[in-house]
Write a structure and sequence with these properties.
Protein name: F-box domain-containing protein
Organism: Periconia digitata
Distance between the termini: 74 Å
Length: 612
C-alpha cells in the first residue's frame, strides 16, 4: 500500500512512534510527513520532549506549528538527533609526498579576536561571520630534509573547506633568512604560535640513530619562530638556542606570555630500581630587546616505572595558565603538575590523582580538567549551611564546566575499583565574597567539584594504544570528539544547561508569580544540574548520561581539531579527513590527494622568498 493512501491518523501514529533522529529524516525526505507533522502540534511537542532543550516555550512558538517544527529541526541539528552518524559528509585527502606521520598533522590557532581573524589570510566572508571558529592548517613535515609544508584550510564555496598549499619552510628559505640551519639539522617538533609557527631543529650529530629513543650528545638545538605572511612568504622573527637537559625530548609548548617551554626526560637507576627524571626549561625573551636572554629553571621529578610492564608510556606536556602538566598519553588527565617556571622561586612537580571518588555529591580535589565554559552570577543572600558563609552575607557564585577522563592510574592501587572510571563533565565552584572574575586556569590545591554528566559509550579506557585518547573540543564547546585507534565518537552538549539554572529551567520565560514555585538559585547550583534541560536522558547517580554519535573512521586517528561547531578535521592513517555535520549534510563521500604539485610550488615559493 502506498503511503499517500494511508489515513492521516495512521501516518501520524507512525511518526509518533519514531525515534527523534528518524522523525527528523522523514521531515527532510517526504512532503507527506512534513505536512502531517504541521497538522499536529501535539506530535511536534512529543518529539521536542525527546531531545534536549528548554521546556518552557514562548507563546509565539507554542501557538505556531511552523515555529514548533523549526525549533525541533534546530535542536535536532544542535544535539545531533539528525542521523549524523550515517549522514555526515566525509572527505579524505591522501598526501602524495613522503612525510613523518607523527610530526605531521593539524595545527590550530585558537582564541583569536574578530579583529585578529580579519587579519588572517585566506578567510572568506562566510568564515568571518561564523560565531565560533578556529583557524586550521595541515602541516606536512619531512624531518630529515628539514622541510615544513603548510596547507591552509580554505573555503571553496559549495565544495566546503579544503587544504591548499600556502607556505613552505626549507633550508633554502632559512639561508635567505640568515638562519644557520641546513640539511645537517632534523625537525623534532612543529607547533602553532600567534600568527605563525615554531619549528624545533636538532643537529643530526646529536641524535643516536641506533636507538629507538633519541639520545642527546650535548649539542645545542635551535628553535625558530616564523610569521606567516601574505603572498606565501615567511619571515623569521625570533630564534632560541636550546640546550638539551635530558636524554629524550618530550614536548614543546608556549606559555601565556609566548615564551617557549621544553620538556625532557632521562631514564636512570637508583637503589629502588629504575626511575624517570623530567626536566622542564623555560626560555625568556625580554621585551624591547633583539637579543635572546635565556632564563632557565629546571624542575626534576622522579617517577618509579614498573619494569615488569611491557608498555612504556608516551608523555605529553601542556601549559595551563601558569602551570605545567605532565600527561601520560593514555591517561588524558595530568598525573603531575608544577607551578610556573621562572627565575624568582623554585617549585617541584606534584603528583595528582586522576580518579574521582565513588560517592555522590560535592568533592574536593586539586584543579584538574579542561574548562569548557564559565558562568558568573551575582547571587542574593546566602545561607551558611549551603556555602559556609554567614547568614546575610552577599556574594557571587562562579562556576565552570570541565571535561575530564578518569581511568586507572599508573601502578593503580587495589582501591581504584572503588572510584569512578570514565569520561565526565564536572562542575567547579567558587563561592566568592565579592564580585570579581575568577581565573579557572589557576592551579588550586583545594577546589570543589560536582560530577554533573557522564559521557557513555566512549572507547574502551582499559584497552588503549600508546596513542592514548585523542580529544578535541569545538570552539563553542558544544561538541567533544573522542577517538581511540579507529573509533571516533562525537558528543553534543550545551554547557550553560549545567551552569546556569535560569537557562536550564527556562526561568526567564516563566511569569514572575511562578518564580516562587521554583527552588532557590543557590540550591540549583549544586542540585539537579541540567536535569530539566536533559529530561529526555537517563539520570544515573545524579548524573545526566550523554550518548555519542559514532562517525565513519577507516584509519587510525593521530589527531583531531574542530574548525567550527559542525566541521571536524582529523589527521589519520588514510590522510587528512573532514567530517561535516549539521543541517547541510548529505551523506556524501569523497577522496582526493594533496601535494601532487609540491615541487613546482616549492620552487616558486623559494623564488618569492629570495626576492623579499
Amino acid at each position: 500500500m502506498l503511503l499517500f493512501n494511508l489515513p492521516s491518523e495512521i501516518i501520524g501514529e507512525i511518526l509518533n512512534q519514531l525515534e527523534p533522529a528518524a522523525f527528523y529524516v522523514c521531515l527532510q525526505t517526504a512532503k507527506l510527513f512534513r505536512d502531517n507533522a504541521l497538522s499536529s502540534k501535539a506530535l511536534i511537542r512529543a518529539h521536542l520532549a525527546r531531545i534536549p532543550g528548554q521546556r518552557v516555550l514562548s507563546e509565539e512558538v507554542e501557538n505556531s506549528p511552523d515555529a514548533l517544527l523549526g525549533l525541533f529541526e534546530k535542536r535536532a541539528n544542535q544535539h545531533l538527533f539528525n542521523s549524523a552518524g550515517a549522514m555526515a559528509d566525509v572527505f579524505a585527502w591522501f598526501p602524495e609526498q613522503t612525510m613523518h606521520s607523527k610530526l605531521s598533522g593539524l595545527l590550530c590557532w585558537k582564541g583569536l579576536s574578530k579583529q585578529e581573524l580579519k587579519m588572517w589570510k585566506g578567510l572568506s566572508k562566510r568564515d568571518l561571520k561564523t560565531e565560533n571558529t578556529h583557524i586550521l592548517a595541515y602541516c606536512e613535515v619531512q624531518p630529515e630534509k628539514a622541510i615544513v609544508t603548510l596547507y591552509s584550510i580554505e573555503d571553496y564555496g559549495v565544495h566546503g573547506h579544503r587544504p591548499q598549499i600556502s607556505h613552505i619552510i626549507s633550508p633554502r628559505i632559512l639561508l635567505c633568512q640568515g638562519a644557520l640551519v641546513d640539511h645537517q639539522y632534523k625537525i623534532m617538533k612543529v607547533t602553532s604560535v600567534k600568527f605563525g609557527i615554531a619549528v624545533l631543529y636538532a643537529p643530526l650529530q646529536s641524535i643516536h640513530q641506533s636507538d629507538s629513543e633519541h639520545v642527546l650528545l650535548g649539542q645545542e638545538w635551535k628553535l625558530l619562530l616564523f610569521h606567516l605572511e601574505s603572498g606565501h612568504g615567511v619571515s623569521l622573527y625570533r630564534s632560541y638556542n636550546i640546550r638539551p637537559q635530558g636524554s629524550v625530548f618530550i614536548d614543546l609548548a608556549f606559555d601565556s606570555d609566548g615564551n617557549p617551554v621544553v620538556c625532557w626526560k632521562t631514564h636512570a637507576y637508583n637503589n629502588r630500581g629504575m626511575y624517570t627524571s623530567f626536566q622542564v626549561t623555560r626560555h625568556h625573551h625580554p621585551r624591547n630587546s633583539q637579543r635572546v636572554q635565556e632564563v632557565e629553571r629546571h624542575r626534576t621529578l622522579e617517577l618509579s616505572i614498573d619494569t615488569r610492564s611491557a608498555q612504556d608510556y608516551n608523555y605529553m606536556m601542556s601549559m595551563r595558565g601558569k602551570h605545567i602538566d605532565i600527561i601520560p598519553a593514555p591517561a588524558h588527565l595530568p598525573h603531575y603538575t608544577s607551578p610556573y617556571v621562572d627565575h624568582e622561586h623554585s617549585a617541584l612537580f606534584e603528583s595528582r590523582d586522576p580518579e574521582f571518588p565513588e560517592s555522590i555529591g560535592i568533592f574536593t580535589r586539586p584543579s584538574f580538567g579542561y574548562t569548557l565554559a564559565t558562568h558568573h552570577y551575582c547571587s542574593s543572600l546566602r545561607s551558611s549551611d549551603t556555602f559556609g558563609a554567614s547568614n546575610g552575607e552577599r556574594g557571587c557564585v562562579n562556576t565552570a564546566l570541565k571535561f575530564a577522563i578518569s581511568r586507572e592510574a599508573l601502578g593503580a592501587s587495589p582501591l581504584s575499583s572503588r572510584k569512578k572510571q570514565g569520561a565526565f563533565l564536572v562542575k567547579a565552584f567558587d563561592f566568592a565574597d565579592s564580585c570579581h572574575d575568577f581565573d579557572w586556569d589557576e592551579d588550586r590545591f583545594q577546589q570543589q567539584y560536582l560530577v554533573v554528566a557522564r559521557l557513555i559509550a566512549h572507547p574502551d579506557l582499559c584497552n588503549l594504544s600508546t596513542l592514548g585518547l585523542i580529544v578535541a573540543v569545538s570552539p563553542g564547546a558544544h561538541r567533544i570528539a573522542v577517538s581511540s585507534w579507529r573509533t571516533l565518537v562525537v558528543y553534543s552538549l550545551d554547557p550553560q544547561a549545567f551552569l546556569d539554572p535560569d537557562y536550564s529551567l527556562s526561568r526567564a520565560m516563566i511569569p514572575a508569580p511562578d518564580l516562587y514555585m521554583l527552588p532557590s538559585y543557590p540550591e540549583n547550583q549544586k542540585e539537579r544540574c541540567g536535569w530539566e534541560y536533559y529530561s529526555n536522558a537517563n539520570i544515573i547517580e545524579s548524573c545526566v548520561e550523554l550518548e555519542p554519535v559514532r562517525l565513519e573512521c577507516k584509519g587510525v586517528v593521530y589527531g583531531l581539531e574542530w574548525r567550527d561547531e559542525n566541521e571536524l578535521w582529523g589527521w589519520a592513517e588514510n590522510g587528512l579527513v573532514r567530517w561535516t555535520m549539521g543541517s547541510m549534510m548529505k551523506g556524501a563521500r569523497g577522496y582526493g590527494s594533496i601535494g601532487g604539485d609540491w615541487l613546482e610550488k616549492a620552487n616558486w615559493m623559494d623564488s618569492l622568498n629570495e626576492k623579499q
